[in-house]
Amino acid sequence: METVRVQSDPFDMGAELNAFAAAMAKKNAGAVVSFSGLTRDIATGDLDAMEIEHYPGMTEKALAEIRDEAIERFNLSDAMILHRHGRMGPGEPIMMVATAARHRADAFQGAEFLMDYLKSRAPFWKKEITAQGAEWVAARDEDEDALSRW
């Protein structure tokens, strides 16, 4: 199972989580935590689509490094990061993280750490496309604040 994937194709959240959980049962994990994000309207106006850009190779390397850091910091059995790029419509799955650990607190903290990183530091660039035009999504102060707690 690939634990870091950046892809343009849609994914099945349930199938991804079931595969991850089955692999973690073999590692004697007692807790699996997941979070999935959906494309949503951030700009003013009705969202037609969101386009996400990234640098192939660099993005995967950065995600693998933060995944490895989460495993070490939170005593995780494993962690998975799945993120899409390209054009997505409203409500489509955009990303997913899953963590596993012997204890639930570690799994929850590891997932929160990964989410905070993805929201503020992961090398992705998002553009919202509406009937009014296209607009790049700016970083938000609250996302940076959330990352600072780690």
UniProtKB/TrEMBL annotation:
- Any idea which UniProt keywords this protein has? Molybdenum cofactor biosynthesis
- Could you tell me the EC number(s) of this protein? 2.8.1.12
Q: Per the record, what are the reactions this protein catalyses?
A: 2 [molybdopterin-synthase sulfur-carrier protein]-C-terminal-Gly-aminoethanethioate + cyclic pyranopterin phosphate + H2O = molybdopterin + 2 [molybdopterin-synthase sulfur-carrier protein]-C-terminal Gly-Gly + 2 H(+)
* Broadest EC class assigned to this enzyme: transferase
Asked whether the UniProt record includes Ribosomal protein among its keywords, one would answer no
Q: Any idea what job this protein has?
A: Converts molybdopterin precursor Z into molybdopterin. This requires the incorporation of two sulfur atoms into precursor Z to generate a dithiolene group. The sulfur is provided by MoaD.
Please give the family membership noted in the entry: Belongs to the MoaE family.
Q: How does it assemble?
A: Heterotetramer of 2 MoaD subunits and 2 MoaE subunits. Also stable as homodimer. The enzyme changes between these two forms during catalysis.
This chain belongs to the protein called Molybdopterin synthase catalytic subunit
Species source reads [Roseibacterium] beibuensis
